[in-house]
Amino acid sequence: MPQSTDAFASIDANPEPVGLETGHHELGHGARLRFVIGRGPPEMTSRGTVLLLQGRNEAVEKYYETIADLNARGFTVASFDWRGQGGSGRGTFLAGVGHVGSLSTLIHDLERFLRDVVMDRCPPPYAVIAHSMGGLVALSATSHLSSLVERMVVLAPLVALPGSAGMRRLQALVAGAFHWCGLGFVPLRRARRLDPREPLAGNVLTSDARRFERNRALQAAAPWLFVEGVSASWLRAVLKATRRLDDSDRIARLDLPTLFLLPGDDRVVSTAAAERLAWRMRAGHSIRVPGARHELLQEADRFREPALAAIEAFLADALPRPPPLPPIDEALIGAAVAAEAPPAALPSPEGDAVSR
After folding, report:
1. For position 294, which CATH number holds?
2. Are strands 31-38 and 20-28 parallel, antiparallel or unpaired?
3. Domain encompassing residue 125
4. Using alpha carbons only, what angle is made at residue 203 by residues 202 and 208, rounded to the nearest 5 degrees?
5. Nearest CA-CA partner of 226 in 239, 237, 217
6. Residues 6 or more apart from 201 whose CB is under 8 A from it?
7. Reported pTM
8. Which among 229, 228, 231 is positioned nearest to 219, based on CA atoms?
9. Which of 125, 264, 148 is nearest to 204 (CA)?
10. CA distances for 145 relative to 35, 139, 225, 293, angstroms
11. Domain total for the chain?
12. CA gap 260, 248 in Å, rounded
């Protein structure tokens, strides 16, 4: 397999969904987003399109199973790799560092992809499903999304990092100092990757052995899709965005109906902060999934299936299933065929004369 940052990885344990399209969307100035559109099998009648937003240090291949499951429920699915990770363009010469100067860059990329690719090539109506960092971007972009999409689901959204408020202030101070000194590309945190030596029990992402090994195999087969660390500017942007989500005036403007699906055993982001935000929103609702770890869509079926069912139920009114076709009336078909048949030939004049 060529070690190209925009190649699509394929392994036996992670087959492509039926009807998958792949591509790259040029943003200008050398930046581009690697994306997929899951249209499902040819016989599928779409009920609308879900824009699936990944978390930090993920790639579209990690969601092949989820795309197929959403197709099975009648949804077209579009997803892309965020700038600075996956097969999309890096924001720094250090290819192993996930870097973005400001969250507004990711918000702009999201809006461009939604308008230029999803709305141009995928059937309406539209909804968003966003995981972790993708949830932070989607919530921060609500003013851009509310006129374009009907509903939004955020899974384990990065509303706040775990730890004390004092620690977060210290992190913001250090990250800000690097950013304003022109060293924002310097990695300050390790990116969360699946260590080849890490046992299932020791990871904080999933309790499902099959999906854990599948994602580890994907990372081993395509290491160029995953970064080793995140930059000071990335950390500064995230901390700044999480502080904004605690502002009452900004929360009052979060008017897009949003379902929060929150793992009960999340040690990556703060579940309590996400529940508090959902409670403060006018259009927010939250469901906690007891015992689940951070990556709900990569979790064991006992956690994942209820989460998918909750997603479908929440989207059902806005993206309804198309009504079934009426049964075929064989009598009407027969009448239509008879009406289209050519008229019987008239007898010739000579024949009339002879008969007389």
Report:
1. 3.40.50.1820
2. antiparallel
3. 20-315
4. 105
5. 217
6. none
7. 0.87
8. 228
9. 264
10. 19, 9, 28, 28
11. 1
12. 18
Per-residue pLDDT tens digits of the chain, which is 356 residues long:
345 556 799 899 999 999 999 999 998 877 889 999 999 999 999 999 999 999 999 999 999 999 999 999 999 999 999 998 888 887 676 777 788 888 999 999 999 999 999 999 999 999 999 999 999 999 999 999 999 999 999 999 999 988 777 777 887 888 788 888 888 788 777 666 566 667 787 789 999 999 999 999 999 999 989 888 888 888 899 999 999 999 999 999 999 999 999 999 999 999 999 999 999 999 999 999 999 999 999 999 999 999 999 999 999 999 998 877 667 666 767 766 777 767 666 565 555 544 44
In a domain, 7, yes or no: no
Cα–Cα distance measured from residue 13 to residue 16, given in angstroms and rounded to the nearest whole number:
10
Q: Which amino acid is at 192?
A: R
Q: How far apart are CA 194 and CA 203, in angstroms?
A: 8
Can you tell me the distance from the alpha carbon of 5 to that of 135, in angstroms, rounded to the nearest whole number? 24
Distance CA(282)–CA(279), nearest Å, equals: 8
Sheet strand arrangement including 229-231:
97-98, 229-231, 187-190
Phi-psi map region of 101: left, alpha, beta (phi>0 left; psi -120 to 50 alpha): alpha
For residue 158, give the 3-state DSSP assignment.
coil
262, part of any domain:
yes
Q: Residue 351 falls within a domain, yes or no?
A: no
CB distance 78 to 117 below 8 Å:
yes
Half-sphere exposure of 147 (CA within 13 A, CB side): 4
9 in any annotated domain: no
